[in-house]
Design brief:
Layout (H helix, E strand, L loop, with lengths): L1 H20 L10 E2 L12 H15 L5 E5 H7 L4 H7 L10 E2 L5 H8 L9 H4 L2 H9 L1 E3 L7 E3 L12 H4 E9 L5 E11 L4 H19 L3 H29 L5
Antiparallel strand pairs: 1-7, 2-3, 4-5, 6-7
Length: 252
């Protein structure tokens, strides 16, 4: 737990320093065009869910709880042995039966970030997986904010870019039109992260996948059950139609 909070605190400090120090601006050819896109996540991908749980516990749990879930349920659903789960994902509890909470007091969170970080158990159901996916791709350097970053999907977001060491730092690029107004074009990398764009994209998809699962763990079984329910209804309608024909066969 403490190593997670320390990691997040260090990331925030380094991010502010990097943002305030500025960065070298590349050529216009380095601008990556941006538009909202689909997450394309798959909650049946067990390996992705396991990686997503790892990333969430190490990068997100310092601030965001999943207080409607127990570690045991996550371990069972993701097919993690109890000893592996205890060692690798249980950072804010002592037993697998504990709920996934955070240690940060709400008063401290409000003082540091302006508000307490929301619980993310149901964020995929309220916002949608696509929104989370685009949100985690949309942080950019903004020296006018406390955290040193801003977000295109959620303006003036209090959340710092905790994944900056993986993605790197990027700036928002605007194009000036003939009437003097500015139009957002995309992002330009000003500091490389540890991962390439494709590698970071996979990390984001894994986190989105895990949050999609967390919001509705039963969704895979529900979809499978729905197929058989529809099949039963189809057979019932066919039998009802044949029975109706039999009853009305002699009616002129």
């Amino acid at each position: 737990m403490m190593r997670t909070i320390k990691k997040l605190s260090l990331s925030a400090i380094v991010l502010v320093v990097a943002a305030s120090a500025g960065a070298v601006i590349a050529d216009d050819s380095d601008v990556r065009e941006w538009r909202p896109s689909s997450a394309g996540n798959d909650v049946t991908n067990l390996s992705s869910l396991q990686r997503g749980a790892k990333y969430y516990m190490n990068y997100c749990l310092g601030c965001h709880s999943l207080e409607f879930k127990r570690y045991q349920r996550i371990a069972d659903d993701l097919q993690l042995p109890d000893d592996v789960a205890l060692e690798n994902i249980v950072f804010t509890g002592e037993e697998l039966a504990d709920m996934v909470k955070i240690a940060m007091p709400e008063d401290d969170a409000s003082e540091w970030f302006g508000m307490a970080a929301p619980d993310l158990t149901l964020v995929a159901r309220s916002r949608g997986p696509d929104w989370i996916y685009n949100f985690l791709h949309s942080f950019y350097v903004d020296e006018g904010t406390v955290a040193g970053t801003n977000n295109r999907m959620l303006g003036n977001a209090a959340m710092p870019h905790v994944l900056w060491s993986l993605q790197g730092l990027q700036e928002a690029v605007y194009k000036e039109s003939d009437n003097g107004s500015e139009t957002f074009v995309g992002f330009r990398t000003v500091r490389e992260g540890r991962l390439s764009h494709s590698e970071y994209d996979r990390v984001v998809r894994d986190i989105v996948n895990f949050l999609d699962y967390a919001g509705e763990p039963i969704q895979t079984q529900r979809r499978q059950m729905g197929f058989w329910v529809l099949a039963f209804i189809g057979v019932f309608i066919l039998l009802a139609y044949l029975l109706k024909k039999e009853y009305w066969r002699d009616v002129k």
